[in-house]
Amino acid sequence: MEYTIRKFNESIGQIIVEYRGASFAIDLPIDENKNYPIGAELDSLIKQFLPLGYFERLDEIAAGVNNADSIKSLVIPHPEPEPARQAEQPATMGTQTL
Prior knowledge:
- It is flat, with a radius of gyration of 28 Å.
- The chain has helices at about 40-50, 50-60, 70, and strands at about 5-10, 15-20, 20-25.
- The longest helix has 11 residues, at about 40-50.
- With about 100 residues, it is an alpha+beta fold.
- The chain has a domain at about 5-65.
- A three-stranded antiparallel sheet has the order 1-2-3, with no helix packed on it.
């Protein structure tokens, strides 16, 4: 699994990790010696936070689902909103000359 650490916000102890085009914020824990995880420990932490099941599901769906048309046939979309009507202009009174 390849991911890229795109940003480290030192003021809040957070990294931004990119995986398969999506970005995830991960707050880094601090150990008893006031250190962030590094090396294999950081790699393990990142992998725990990435929603791998979600991406596996996307791959499975992309490969095709045999009865997707059955679900599509049940969909009743929301009606299209009516176009906004222009507010009626108030009647203007003619000017009078005294």
